[in-house]
Design a protein that fits this description.
362 residues; alpha/beta; single chain; 12 helices
Length: 362
C-alpha cells in the first residue's frame, strides 16, 4: 500500500472514533502505531547534586539516571527494534562529525554521511526545525540553547533540497519567544539562511487525544508541528536537573502546552511517548558545546565544554544514546527515556550493533 504522509498518519492516529480500525490498517501497511506524546516540564530549576561517571561530572537526578526503571520495562535488544528507521543503502546509521571551528561544516558532514538532506526533505516539503531555545538572556556560549550556526545550516540545506517552507520553532520555558530567539543568536542565523521564525502563538495549541499512549493520553500540541511534512529535531546536549540529561527525545517537549502538569509524574515514559508520536524524521544533536553541569541553564560559561561535535541520525534513540557518551556514560539505558524508546521500538540504543561513521572535519 502507498506510504502515507506524517500529517495523514497523525490525523488517523489521533482520531478517537474508529481508532482500533486505524491501528489495524496501519499495522497492515507495516507501520507500528505510535505510542503517545508527552508534555514538557515547566518546573523551577533545581540544584544538581554531582555524581561521577568515567570522570565527568553529571547529574544524579531523582527518578532518572541512577534510579531503577519499573520492572515491566523490557531491556532493549536489536531484535526488539522492529519499527526503527532503516539506514540509506551504503550509508551510516548514525554519523558523528568532529573538529574544526565551523558548526555548518560539521552539520553538513554528519548529514552527508547518513544519506544527505534529500533523504529527509522532499521537493515542496513543509519543514519544521525544532531547536532548544529555552530561555532569553543566554547566548549560545552558555550551552543552554542550540548553536545558531547548526540551525542556520539546516535551514540552508532544507531550502537547497527544495523545501517549500522552513519554519524554526520552540516554546521557551522562560521569557517570550521573541527575546529567547534573539538572545540565543538563532533568530539572526535563521533569517540570514532564508528560514522563517515561528514565534509562539497560544491559539495554535490544539487539544489532542492520544488513544495509543502508554502513559499520557492527551495533550495540547502546537499545530505547526502536527501539520509539518518533515520535523527536524535539533537539541543541544546538556545536563538537566530532573532527568539527568536533556537530548533529542526530551527536546520534543517544546511542542506541547501544559508541560508541568501533563508529564512530570511519569516523565521518562511520557518523553518516550512524545517522541514516538511526533517521530522526527531527522535528529541532529548539537554538541559544538555541551553543558556539563547545572543544566538546563547555567549561570556560568565555565560549565560549558567546547567539543566541536555534531551527531546525526534518522533514529532519535540512537542519536541520544551516542550523545550520552559525551558525558562519560558507559550505558545509555541508564537514561530512562532512552530505555523506554528502545524497548518500544522507536529506535535503537545498542550502539555496538550499528554502523556508525566517525568523521574528522577541519
Amino acid at each position: 500500500m502507498k506510504k502515507i504522509s506524517r500529517r495523514k498518519f497523525i490525523t488517523l492516529l489521533t482520531q478517537s472514533a474508529g481508532a482500533a480500525v486505524v491501528f489495524q490498517l496501519l499495522e497492515a501497511c507495516g507501520i507500528k502505531p505510535a505510542a503517545v506524546p508527552g508534555t514538557p516540564t515547566n518546573t523551577p530549576f533545581q540544584t544538581l547534586s554531582s555524581g561521577v561517571d568515567n570522570g565527568i561530572s553529571i547529574a544524579n537526578a531523582p527518578g532518572s539516571t541512577n534510579t531503577p526503571l519499573p520492572s515491566d520495562t523490557p531491556a532493549p535488544t536489536a531484535e526488539a527494534a522492529t519499527d526503527t528507521p532503516s539506514p540509506a543503502p551504503g550509508f551510516a546509521y548514525l554519523a558523528v562529525a568532529r573538529g574544526g571551528d565551523d558548526p555548518e561544516a560539521l552539520t553538513r558532514a554528519a548529514i552527508a554521511a547518513i544519506g544527505g538532506i534529500g533523504r529527509f526533505v522532499p521537493q515542496g516539503a513543509n519543514v519544521l526545525i525544532k531547536p532548544n531555545i529555552c530561555v532569553p538572556y543566554k547566548d549560545y556560549t552558555y550551552a543552554a540553547t542550540t548553536n545558531p550556526w547548526v540551525v542556520g545550516a539546516l535551514v540552508k540545506m532544507c531550502l537547497e533540497a527544495g523545501a517549500a517552507k522552513v519554519l524554526v520553532y520552540d516554546f521557551p520555558f522562560g521569557g517570550p519567544s521573541t527575546d529567547a530567539y534573539a538572545d540565543s543568536g538563532i533568530a539572526d542565523q535563521v533569517t540570514a539562511a532564508g528560514g522563517q521564525l515561528e514565534y509562539v502563538d497560544y491559539k495554535k495549541f490544539i487539544p489532542t487525544d492520544l488513544p495509543n499512549g502508554q502513559s499520557l493520553h492527551s495533550a495540547a500540541f502546537y499545530s505547526e508541528v502536527i501539520n509539518a511534512d518533515v520535523v527536524i529535531n535539533v537539541p543541544i546536549a546538556k545536563t538537566h536537573s530532573t532527568t539527568g540529561l536533556t537530548l533529542g527525545m526530551k527536546n520534543m517537549m517544546g511542542v506541547v502546552l501544559d508541560r508541568a502538569n501533563a508529564i512530570h509524574a511519569d516523565i521518562h515514559r511520557r518523553i518516550a511517548d512524545l517522541a514516538v508520536f511526533i517521530r522526527p524524521e531527522l535528529t541532529v544533536v548539537d554538541a559544538v558545546r555541551i553543558l556539563t553541569a547545572n543544566g538546563p541553564v547555567s549561570a556560568s560559561r565555565s560549565d560549558a565544554l567546547k567539543l566541536d561535535t555534531v551527531i546525526a541520525s534518522a533514529d532519535v534513540v540512537a542519536a541520544d544514546a551516542y550523545a550520552t557518551k559525551l558525558f562519560g556514560w558507559t550505558d545509555p539505558n541508564r537514561l530512562g527515556y532512552i530505555k523506554y524508546g528502545a524497548a518500544w521500538g522507536l529506535g535503537r540504543s545498542d550502539l555496538e550493533n550499528l554502523k556508525i561513521s566517525e568523521i574528522s572535519v577541519g
